[in-house]
Design goal:
Blueprint lengths: L10 E4 L15 E6 L7 E10 L2 E6 L17 E8 L2 E3 L2 E4 L2 E6 L3 E10 L11 E4 L2 E4 L16 E6 L5 E4 L7 E3 L2 H4 L4 E4 L2 E7 L2 E7 L8 H19 L7 E8 L5 E6 L2 E7 L6 H4 L1 H9 L28 H18 L5 H17 L9 H6 L11 H19 L6 H12 L9 H12 L4 H9 L6 H4 L5 E7 L5 E7 L5 H10 L4
Parallel strand pairs: 2-12, 17-18, 18-20
Antiparallel strand pairs: 1-13, 2-3, 3-9, 4-8, 5-6, 5-9, 7-8, 10-11, 11-15, 12-14, 13-15, 16-17, 19-20, 21-22
Length: 511
């Protein structure tokens, strides 16, 4: 889902209104100053300084957010772009929706200024930006321009915010915030306002839990316990963590019913919706487990198409393996909950895996597109679609069962994930292909599961669950609902053998 990135310790600072470029700029780096002149107007003002060379300067806003497939339209909200060098203001021309061009008459320091409005229709607010009287956040992908020539340069970020507001981000603080380059910058969302935070340690690694505003009353001890259990389990599964610290940024969103999250290397940004507050430790655990698992399956382990960081911000990336990145991650999020005792074995089958089968099989594209097809068209707005999250979860579950069956419980999908993670740690790693996934599966299964894999991922017809679950000790039943849809339900067969029951027990047991 994303190229490899770098995680840093969380820093929280109070940023004052009066900030100038005097101490913020340095040769051969890009400096951004992000200001909120009036929170009630929902506008950011951005000033930049960067080195420029005589000739055309192309300023861009990314066409998508690295890791979030499908085209974005961030440029719609950018206004009043001004470019200057020395004492000379330069004309700018927009050559496409995401690109502004100025002709630099000489080399030197270029100054850019522009305004960015918020998108009032963006309900989730996870990969965009927002500001109001209480605070806000931004993902730099949606806010900060760059040029191809400067994208590799170190970055220095200052914020000019109302008095009393605090800032939280995973970037290191050095009189402002610094990043190795533009892609490191956009991997670190920024929240600000009335921040509340605490730290828990998991296997000696600090986990900063940052809340952009105080939440209604909830069991914080239980929430921290669940987070610690999930984090420790997922680290144990892989044997090590690809980060030295972890930052969770949580935004209280009483205007939405539930919540959602988006991963970053060494951190996540999550919305907490109103209904989650009924039992926050239980309600947000699945989303936390999903985004946390992405530190391995998306960040460290990533498909080859996401690896070329220099090209990532230009055009949308279309990836036919998103089912593996997102859906298999969903499967392991469910496993994390049952293996840590947060949910029961019965709930795992009835409330998590069974609904995923139902959702996958009820897609409008069922019978007309494969799971790989659905991954490729993600974000395109196609009317005919298939949910690659639930589909990937179902495929991960079936592959796990088949590997366990083939090896009499000696190996599982856990071993496949560990193998892929070990490969990602090797010098020269450039992401995986579908062939790499198949090779890892076959190696752990000790058998050729390519035909089974292809049937699950590339065939367009509904899955034959009776065949797929053969000899596993599980059955699936389908029932027609009043609205005409079909609901699926998994169950352990009454005639399951002792060996099959043992394999099912091992599947939900902590590795």
């Amino acid at each position: 889902m994303r190229p490899k990135r770098y995680g840093f310790l969380l820093c929280i600072v109070t940023v004052f209104l009066s900030i100038s470029f005097a101490n913020a700029t340095a040769q051969q780096r890009v400096t951004y100053i992000v200001s909120v002149p009036s929170p009630s107007k929902h506008v950011f003002h951005v000033e930049m300084e960067m080195p420029g060379t005589a000739g055309p300067l192309k300023l861009r806003i990314p066409a998508f957010q690295p890791g979030d497939p499908g085209p974005k339209h961030y440029a719609r909200f950018i206004e009043h772009v001004k470019v200057a060098i020395g004492e000379q203001d330069l004309p700018t021309k927009r050559i496409d929706p995401n690109t502004w061009v100025s002709a630099l008459p000489q080399s030197g320091t270029v100054r850019i200024a522009y305004d960015v409005e918020v998108d009032p229709k963006d309900q989730l607010q996870l990969d965009n930006h927002w500001v109001d009287e209480t605070g806000g956040y931004f993902d730099s992908t949606s806010l900060l321009l760059y040029s191809d020539e400067s994208a590799h340069l170190p970055v220095f970020l200052k914020l000019n915010l109302p008095p009393g507001w605090k800032v939280a981000t995973s970037l290191p603080e050095e009189g402002g915030f610094s990043a190795k380059n533009y892609l490191t910058l956009v991997d670190a969302p920024v929240v600000f306002g009335d921040i509340v935070e605490r730290t828990i340690s998991v296997n000696g690694i600090p986990h900063r839990l940052v809340f952009a505003a105080s939440l209604p009353s909830y069991d914080s001890a239980k929430l921290d316990s669940n987070i610690e259990k999930i984090s420790a389990y997922e680290m144990k599964l892989f044997g090590s963590a690809p980060f030295t610290s972890y930052t969770g940024l949580f935004r209280w969103r009483p205007d939405i019913p539930f919540g959602g999250g988006i991963e970053h290397s060494g951190g996540m940004l999550m919305n907490i919706g109103k209904q989650w507050m009924r039992n926050l430790p239980a309600e947000m655990s699945g989303t936390f487990a999903h985004e946390y698992f992405h530190a391995w399956n998306a960040e460290a382990i990533h498909a080859h198409v996401w690896h070329d960081a220099t090209a990532l911000t230009r055009t949308p990336v279309y990836d036919d393996l998103l089912w593996f990145q997102e859906g298999v991650t969903s499967y392991y999020a469910d496993l994390a909950l049952v293996r840590t005792g947060i949910i029961s074995i019965e709930d795992f089958y009835s409330s998590w895996v069974s609904p995923s089968i139902t959702q996958f099989e009820s897609g409008t594209g069922r019978g007309f597109m494969s799971l790989a097809d659905a991954s490729t068209i993600s974000g395109s707005g196609a009317l005919e679609d298939l949910d690659y999250y639930s589909g990937g979860e179902v495929v991960g579950f079936l592959l796990d069962l088949r590997i366990r069956l083939a090896t009499h419980g000696r190996h599982s999908l856990d071993d496949v994930m560990r193998r892929l993670y070990a490969q990602s740690r090797q010098p020269g790693y450039a992401g995986y292909s579908e062939e790499d996934i198949i090779a890892a599966i076959n190696s752990e299964a000790g058998a050729d599961l390519r035909p089974f894999f292809y049937r699950l991922v590339h065939e367009k017809e509904r899955l034959d669950y009776r065949s797929s679950l053969e000899n596993t000790g599980l059955s699936v039943s389908a029932s027609l609902q009043p609205d005409g849809s079909t609901s699926y339900k998994l169950a352990i067969r009454q005639d399951a053998t002792q060996e099959q029951l043992q394999r099912l027990k091992e599947l939900v047991a902590t590795p």
